Protein backbone atom coordinates (compact mmCIF):
# COMPACT_ATOMS: atom_id res chain seq x y z
CA UNK A 1 0.00 0.00 0.00
CA UNK A 2 3.03 2.29 0.00
CA UNK A 3 2.50 5.17 -2.39
CA UNK A 4 -1.26 4.60 -2.65
CA UNK A 5 -3.86 7.26 -1.96
CA UNK A 6 -4.16 8.20 1.71
CA UNK A 7 -7.83 7.17 1.77
CA UNK A 8 -6.95 3.63 0.67
CA UNK A 9 -4.22 3.42 3.28
CA UNK A 10 -6.63 4.73 5.92
CA UNK A 11 -9.15 2.00 5.06
CA UNK A 12 -6.45 -0.64 5.42
CA UNK A 13 -5.25 0.78 8.74
CA UNK A 14 -8.84 0.97 9.98
CA UNK A 15 -9.57 -2.66 9.09
CA UNK A 16 -6.41 -3.74 10.88
CA UNK A 17 -7.58 -1.75 13.89
CA UNK A 18 -10.94 -3.55 13.78
CA UNK A 19 -9.22 -6.93 13.80
CA UNK A 20 -6.85 -5.86 16.58
CA UNK A 21 -9.75 -6.12 19.03
CA UNK A 22 -9.54 -9.92 18.66
CA UNK A 23 -5.72 -9.77 18.75
CA UNK A 24 -5.49 -10.32 14.98
CA UNK A 25 -3.62 -8.30 12.36
CA UNK A 26 -5.47 -8.98 9.14
CA UNK A 27 -7.55 -6.49 7.12
CA UNK A 28 -9.62 -9.37 5.70
CA UNK A 29 -10.56 -10.41 9.23
CA UNK A 30 -11.44 -6.77 9.90
CA UNK A 31 -13.69 -6.72 6.82
CA UNK A 32 -15.51 -9.85 8.02
CA UNK A 33 -16.00 -8.30 11.44
CA UNK A 34 -17.42 -5.12 9.92
CA UNK A 35 -19.81 -7.30 7.90
CA UNK A 36 -20.86 -9.01 11.14
CA UNK A 37 -21.47 -5.64 12.81
CA UNK A 38 -23.58 -4.50 9.84
CA UNK A 39 -25.52 -7.76 10.09
CA UNK A 40 -26.05 -7.20 13.81
CA UNK A 41 -26.83 -3.46 13.69
CA UNK A 42 -26.04 -0.83 11.07
CA UNK A 43 -26.02 1.81 13.79
CA UNK A 44 -23.40 -0.09 15.79
CA UNK A 45 -21.39 -0.60 12.60
CA UNK A 46 -21.47 3.15 11.98
CA UNK A 47 -20.34 3.89 15.53
CA UNK A 48 -17.50 1.38 15.23
CA UNK A 49 -16.40 2.92 11.93
CA UNK A 50 -16.47 6.43 13.38
CA UNK A 51 -14.47 5.29 16.40
CA UNK A 52 -11.71 3.51 14.51
CA UNK A 53 -11.37 6.33 11.97
CA UNK A 54 -11.36 9.08 14.62
CA UNK A 55 -8.61 7.41 16.64
CA UNK A 56 -6.54 6.48 13.58
CA UNK A 57 -6.71 9.97 12.06
CA UNK A 58 -5.84 11.50 15.44
CA UNK A 59 -2.76 9.25 15.61
CA UNK A 60 -1.72 10.43 12.14
CA UNK A 61 -2.16 14.09 13.08
CA UNK A 62 -0.18 13.59 16.32
CA UNK A 63 2.66 12.00 14.36
CA UNK A 64 2.56 8.66 16.15
CA UNK A 65 4.87 5.85 15.06
CA UNK A 66 3.99 4.94 11.47
CA UNK A 67 4.34 1.19 12.12
CA UNK A 68 1.85 1.38 15.00
CA UNK A 69 -0.58 3.44 12.94
CA UNK A 70 -0.43 1.15 9.90
CA UNK A 71 -0.72 -1.91 12.17
CA UNK A 72 -4.00 -0.69 13.67
CA UNK A 73 -2.65 -0.23 17.20
CA UNK A 74 -4.38 3.14 17.55
CA UNK A 75 -7.70 2.03 16.10
CA UNK A 76 -9.03 -0.76 18.28
CA UNK A 77 -9.39 1.26 21.50
CA UNK A 78 -11.36 3.92 19.68
CA UNK A 79 -13.62 1.32 18.14
CA UNK A 80 -14.33 -0.32 21.50
CA UNK A 81 -15.15 3.06 23.08
CA UNK A 82 -17.66 3.98 20.37
CA UNK A 83 -19.26 0.52 20.35
CA UNK A 84 -19.75 0.50 24.12
CA UNK A 85 -21.16 4.02 24.07
CA UNK A 86 -23.81 2.73 21.68
CA UNK A 87 -24.50 -0.35 23.80
CA UNK A 88 -24.92 1.62 27.03
CA UNK A 89 -26.92 4.46 25.46
CA UNK A 90 -30.60 4.50 26.33
CA UNK A 91 -31.44 7.01 23.58
CA UNK A 92 -31.90 4.24 21.00
CA UNK A 93 -30.39 3.76 17.56
CA UNK A 94 -29.62 6.62 15.18
CA UNK A 95 -29.23 9.14 17.97
CA UNK A 96 -26.85 11.38 16.06
CA UNK A 97 -25.67 13.38 19.06
CA UNK A 98 -23.88 10.23 20.25
CA UNK A 99 -21.37 10.62 17.41
CA UNK A 100 -19.87 13.62 19.24
CA UNK A 101 -18.69 11.78 22.39
CA UNK A 102 -17.80 8.77 20.23
CA UNK A 103 -15.39 10.89 18.19
CA UNK A 104 -13.96 12.72 21.19
CA UNK A 105 -13.59 9.57 23.30
CA UNK A 106 -11.96 7.66 20.45
CA UNK A 107 -9.52 10.50 19.79
CA UNK A 108 -8.66 10.75 23.50
CA UNK A 109 -7.64 7.08 23.48
CA UNK A 110 -4.65 8.02 21.32
CA UNK A 111 -3.39 10.51 23.92
CA UNK A 112 -3.75 7.94 26.69
CA UNK A 113 -2.11 5.23 24.58
CA UNK A 114 0.85 7.49 23.82
CA UNK A 115 1.27 8.53 27.46
CA UNK A 116 0.91 5.03 28.91
CA UNK A 117 3.30 3.53 26.36
CA UNK A 118 6.23 5.51 27.73
CA UNK A 119 5.37 4.36 31.26
CA UNK A 120 4.64 0.69 30.54
CA UNK A 121 7.72 0.42 28.34
CA UNK A 122 9.92 0.27 31.44
CA UNK A 123 8.19 -2.95 32.55
CA UNK A 124 7.90 -4.39 29.03
CA UNK A 125 4.10 -4.37 29.27
CA UNK A 126 1.56 -3.66 26.50
CA UNK A 127 -0.90 -0.80 26.86
CA UNK A 128 -3.64 -3.04 25.45
CA UNK A 129 -7.17 -1.80 26.31
CA UNK A 130 -6.29 0.48 29.23
CA UNK A 131 -7.28 3.61 27.23
CA UNK A 132 -10.65 2.06 26.33
CA UNK A 133 -11.39 1.07 29.93
CA UNK A 134 -10.43 4.52 31.22
CA UNK A 135 -12.44 6.50 28.67
CA UNK A 136 -15.61 4.41 28.85
CA UNK A 137 -15.64 4.51 32.67
CA UNK A 138 -15.11 8.28 32.67
CA UNK A 139 -17.91 8.67 30.12
CA UNK A 140 -20.36 6.62 32.20
CA UNK A 141 -19.29 8.51 35.32
CA UNK A 142 -19.83 11.92 33.73
CA UNK A 143 -23.22 11.04 32.24
CA UNK A 144 -26.17 9.17 33.70
CA UNK A 145 -29.60 7.75 33.06
CA UNK A 146 -31.12 11.25 33.43
CA UNK A 147 -28.61 13.11 31.28
CA UNK A 148 -30.57 15.27 28.79
CA UNK A 149 -28.14 14.67 25.92
CA UNK A 150 -26.31 11.40 26.52
CA UNK A 151 -28.45 9.18 28.77
CA UNK A 152 -27.23 5.65 29.37
CA UNK A 153 -28.71 2.52 30.86
CA UNK A 154 -28.33 1.85 34.62
CA UNK A 155 -25.14 0.10 35.64
CA UNK A 156 -27.17 -2.64 37.36
CA UNK A 157 -29.46 -4.42 34.85
CA UNK A 158 -33.15 -4.82 35.77
CA UNK A 159 -33.68 -7.87 37.95
CA UNK A 160 -30.01 -8.20 38.89
CA UNK A 161 -30.84 -7.87 42.58
CA UNK A 162 -33.80 -10.25 42.40
CA UNK A 163 -33.84 -13.97 43.12
CA UNK A 164 -31.85 -16.16 40.76
CA UNK A 165 -33.58 -18.80 38.63
CA UNK A 166 -31.62 -22.04 38.74
CA UNK A 167 -33.50 -23.65 35.83
CA UNK A 168 -31.26 -23.77 32.77
CA UNK A 169 -31.79 -24.70 29.12
CA UNK A 170 -28.81 -26.79 28.03
CA UNK A 171 -29.08 -25.79 24.35
CA UNK A 172 -29.07 -22.10 25.23
CA UNK A 173 -26.03 -22.54 27.47
CA UNK A 174 -24.12 -24.26 24.63
CA UNK A 175 -25.29 -21.53 22.26
CA UNK A 176 -23.79 -18.98 24.64
CA UNK A 177 -20.27 -20.29 23.96
CA UNK A 178 -19.96 -18.85 20.41
CA UNK A 179 -21.94 -15.83 21.57
CA UNK A 180 -19.14 -15.20 24.06
CA UNK A 181 -16.77 -14.64 21.14
CA UNK A 182 -19.20 -12.22 19.49
CA UNK A 183 -19.73 -10.33 22.75
CA UNK A 184 -16.20 -9.00 22.35
CA UNK A 185 -17.82 -6.67 19.80
CA UNK A 186 -21.11 -6.44 21.76
CA UNK A 187 -22.88 -8.77 19.30
CA UNK A 188 -25.74 -10.89 20.66
CA UNK A 189 -27.05 -12.65 17.52
CA UNK A 190 -25.69 -16.08 16.62
CA UNK A 191 -25.07 -15.36 12.92
CA UNK A 192 -22.81 -12.30 13.41
CA UNK A 193 -21.01 -14.07 16.27
CA UNK A 194 -20.20 -17.03 14.02
CA UNK A 195 -18.95 -14.61 11.36
CA UNK A 196 -16.65 -12.99 13.94
CA UNK A 197 -15.41 -16.45 14.91
CA UNK A 198 -14.76 -17.04 11.20
CA UNK A 199 -12.68 -13.84 11.12
CA UNK A 200 -10.56 -15.21 13.97
CA UNK A 201 -10.24 -18.54 12.13
CA UNK A 202 -9.12 -16.73 8.97
CA UNK A 203 -6.26 -15.12 10.85
CA UNK A 204 -5.25 -18.09 13.03
CA UNK A 205 -6.97 -21.46 13.58
CA UNK A 206 -5.10 -21.78 16.89
CA UNK A 207 -6.48 -18.42 18.01
CA UNK A 208 -10.01 -19.51 17.04
CA UNK A 209 -9.68 -22.70 19.11
CA UNK A 210 -8.52 -20.64 22.09
CA UNK A 211 -11.40 -18.22 21.61
CA UNK A 212 -13.95 -21.03 21.86
CA UNK A 213 -12.05 -22.74 24.68
CA UNK A 214 -11.93 -19.53 26.70
CA UNK A 215 -15.62 -18.86 26.21
CA UNK A 216 -16.45 -22.44 27.21
CA UNK A 217 -14.37 -22.23 30.39
CA UNK A 218 -15.96 -18.88 31.17
CA UNK A 219 -19.41 -20.40 30.78
CA UNK A 220 -18.43 -23.27 33.09
CA UNK A 221 -17.12 -20.76 35.62
CA UNK A 222 -20.44 -18.95 35.42
CA UNK A 223 -22.28 -22.22 36.02
CA UNK A 224 -20.11 -22.98 39.03
CA UNK A 225 -20.97 -19.59 40.54
CA UNK A 226 -24.68 -19.79 39.68
CA UNK A 227 -24.79 -16.58 37.64
CA UNK A 228 -28.11 -15.58 36.17
CA UNK A 229 -29.16 -17.62 33.11
CA UNK A 230 -29.28 -14.50 30.93
CA UNK A 231 -25.52 -14.04 31.40
CA UNK A 232 -24.92 -17.62 30.26
CA UNK A 233 -27.34 -17.50 27.33
CA UNK A 234 -26.05 -14.17 25.96
CA UNK A 235 -22.33 -15.00 26.21
CA UNK A 236 -21.57 -12.38 28.86
CA UNK A 237 -19.93 -15.04 31.00
CA UNK A 238 -17.61 -16.08 28.18
CA UNK A 239 -16.16 -13.04 26.43
CA UNK A 240 -13.60 -12.17 29.13
CA UNK A 241 -12.38 -15.74 29.19
CA UNK A 242 -12.24 -15.82 25.41
CA UNK A 243 -9.99 -12.76 25.24
CA UNK A 244 -7.81 -13.97 28.09
CA UNK A 245 -7.37 -17.38 26.50
CA UNK A 246 -6.45 -15.87 23.13
CA UNK A 247 -3.98 -13.44 24.70
CA UNK A 248 -2.09 -16.06 26.72
CA UNK A 249 -2.30 -18.99 24.31
CA UNK A 250 -2.07 -17.32 20.94
CA UNK A 251 -0.39 -13.93 21.26
CA UNK A 252 2.00 -13.20 24.12
CA UNK A 253 3.53 -16.66 24.58
CA UNK A 254 4.83 -19.42 22.32
CA UNK A 255 2.30 -22.22 22.52
CA UNK A 256 3.34 -25.36 24.45
CA UNK A 257 1.77 -27.72 26.96
CA UNK A 258 3.09 -25.58 29.83
CA UNK A 259 1.54 -22.47 28.32
CA UNK A 260 -1.69 -24.43 27.79
CA UNK A 261 -1.86 -25.19 31.53
CA UNK A 262 -1.02 -21.55 32.31
CA UNK A 263 -3.76 -20.17 30.09
CA UNK A 264 -6.31 -22.55 31.59
CA UNK A 265 -5.39 -21.35 35.08
CA UNK A 266 -5.37 -17.66 34.10
CA UNK A 267 -8.61 -18.09 32.18
CA UNK A 268 -10.28 -19.71 35.17
CA UNK A 269 -9.27 -16.83 37.45
CA UNK A 270 -10.44 -14.21 34.96
CA UNK A 271 -13.80 -15.80 34.22
CA UNK A 272 -14.53 -16.47 37.88
CA UNK A 273 -13.87 -12.79 38.59
CA UNK A 274 -16.28 -11.91 35.77
CA UNK A 275 -18.84 -14.27 37.20
CA UNK A 276 -18.38 -12.80 40.69
CA UNK A 277 -19.04 -9.33 39.30
CA UNK A 278 -22.26 -10.50 37.63
CA UNK A 279 -23.64 -12.12 40.79
CA UNK A 280 -22.39 -9.48 43.19
CA UNK A 281 -25.92 -8.25 43.74
CA UNK A 282 -27.15 -11.70 44.72
CA UNK A 283 -24.24 -12.26 47.11
From TrEMBL:
One of its GO terms (molecular function) is urea transmembrane transporter activity. It catalyses: urea(in) = urea(out). InterPro entries: Ammonium/urea_transptr, Urea_transporter. Pfam families: UT (PF03253). The keyword Oxidoreductase does not apply. It is found in: Cell membrane. The keyword Transport applies. It is a multi-pass membrane protein. The chain crosses the membrane at residues 44-62, 94-116, 123-141, 183-202, 209-227, 239-259. GO terms for cellular component: plasma membrane. Keywords: Cell membrane, Membrane, Transmembrane, Transmembrane helix, Transport. Belongs to the urea transporter family. PANTHER family: UREA TRANSPORTER (PTHR10464). This is Urea transporter. It comes from Anabas testudineus.
Amino acid sequence: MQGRFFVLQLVLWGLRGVSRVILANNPLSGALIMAALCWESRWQALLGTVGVLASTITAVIMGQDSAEVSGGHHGFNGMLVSLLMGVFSSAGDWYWWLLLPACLGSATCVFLYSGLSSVFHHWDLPVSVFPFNTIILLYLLCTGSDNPYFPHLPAIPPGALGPNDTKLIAVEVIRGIPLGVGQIYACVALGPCLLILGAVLLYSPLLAVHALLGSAVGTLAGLSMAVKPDFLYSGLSGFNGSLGCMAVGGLFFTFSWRIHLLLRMCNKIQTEQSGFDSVGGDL
